[in-house]
Model the fold of this input.
Amino acid sequence: MRNTEPPLTTVLADRLMRMLATRWNVSYPTMWKAVRILAGKGIIESHKGAGIFRPGTYRASHNVPCPAMPFTDELRSLITDGTYHTGEFLPKVRYFTIGGKHSATTVVKSFSELALEGIVHKQGKQWVAGKAMVPVSQSGEEGPVVIFLVLNDSYWSIMFRQPFTSPFVSALASELLKHRIGLTVAAIQKQKNELSALPAAEEQILPLIRRLGNRYQGTIVTFFPHDLLSQWVKLLARFCRPVISYNMTNERTSISAKSLSLKKGAFTGVYLDEEAAVKLALERLSAFGHTIIGVPVYTATGHEGARRRMETIRACALGCFPDIRIVETEQLEPWWKFGSVSSIPEFVASIGLSPAESAWIPGSPLPVKLRKALMELTPSMQSLVDHPGLTAVIALNNDMARKYYYWCLLMNITIPKQLSMISFDNTLESVTFPITTIDFGFPRLGYLAAHILIGDIPVKTDRQGHVPGVCELVDRGSVRRI
Done:
């Protein structure tokens, strides 16, 4: 190593270790052990907070950080969090120098450093995010394989129908395909009295992994009860490949690699960050001057997701927004049950009114008969909007938001002029719907999960080794300033 490396002067130790570990294809701890051995033999010098040096070359001025470091860290973060996807061309050097914040020299130096780490590579004259893909001659059947583990056969089809799973699975599968990695589905439970095309149960799945050998890239598991998840993570960790769990219930999994006595990075949970989403919604309402906010809750079905979200809203408002008062109303009417409606006639039919009663054009005076029928059939909503000082409503998901929106239209309540509304999920069918919502970042989670399995870029985790979704507010104009 001493004969091949150029003189090392101002590079900080931590950054240098990542570069060298990538260059020699060894782990980060192994690289540090090698440095300690060389330092013990007097071949190099290591100075805390400054870096690693050839003997006699260290000067106190080396403690001054390199001007490229902040930009290098910023660009690395943009790539590892999925803002810039691997394989995509990065903006040109001139783009980063606009405004005078960074010089062209600083930007070029940062690109070069990230190239040594394997975070970017050059294609022609332009920089590209991620490592260069190595062309393969094998067929898809002979390439790397990721196993997607579900509870049983029926859950695999559910993955493509549920709004919480379809964007995640699509992004995951697309990214794996781009890197020429196959996806094999398996189930931990055998179907009773049914033929199944999926490998099932321990006696079929573990031999499948052994047959794959070096082609086995890792496993992603979902829809598991806690005890089964722990059991299967331990079984799969034996094969020394990443194990990822996707929790679509908006809860961080309670188990971790440490709690299961596994090596760091052996198990990662990816999940939707419920607390961050609720905080984002309340921040917008608070910033726009709303202090009395209504939350209708349909509890007749015992929907766990609605219950957890309501608990999070209560806790977040109490702990972070003392100026906000949450007004809850329990919706016992059966037509508020969870389910999607896509038009006013469909909504009117769902609450038991006839087509003749719903013959009304939005903006025109509401027929007395229709108004009276609506008030009798939906007393919970009427009592909520009549609450003194109430200026906004939080819908627990996009399906409920559509129903409340149609109800307001029928009752001649203008959104957002008379009542502001905000919701959650930003599902595909709600993209054109005029209600401000919180996007949980399903596709980005799928992208990051894929790259944990691919292992080409470092993916940032929390203290438990898990990856939360990054929530974003999608403003569609349904929240107004007071």
The chain has 16 helices and 16 strands. Residues 304-320 form the longest helix (17 residues). Confidence is low (pLDDT under 50) at residues 1-11, 60-64. Residues 45 and 56 are 8 Å apart (CA to CA).
